[in-house]
Amino acid sequence: MPFTLLSDETGDVCEAYGVLNKKSLFGNTFLGITRSTFLIDEKGIIRKIWRKVKVNGHTEQILHEFSGA
To answer: Which residue blocks in the chain are alpha helix, DSSP H?
Structure first.
């Protein structure tokens, strides 16, 4: 791939980008990650944010953004 992907093992980046949120499942509340994609340019500027990403169709959304369409 001609770009860098990030894996955040410590959670520091998730916290900085505001993707850690309270969630609940079967009556239990916990801290979870809201699936998100950040498109960051070569200067480190965030150009696009997708929050609450659905897997189906998301690749096409990203490719569309890259194509400049």
So the answer is: 12-16, 58-67
**Structure-token match 């239990």, residue found:** 28
Q: What tens digit of pLDDT does each residue of 16-69 get?
A: 999 999 999 999 999 999 999 998 888 989 999 999 999 898 999 988 887 765
**Rounded distance between C-alpha atoms, residue 35 and residue 55, angstroms:** 9
DSSP-derived 3-state class of residue 29: strand
Residue 10 clears pLDDT 70, i.e. is over it: yes
* Cα distance between residue 20 and residue 43, in whole Å: 25
- For residues 26 and 67, what is the distance between their CA atoms, to the nearest angstrom? 42
Domain borders along the chain are 12-67
19: its two tokens = 């993707």
Pairing of strands 36-40, 46-51: antiparallel
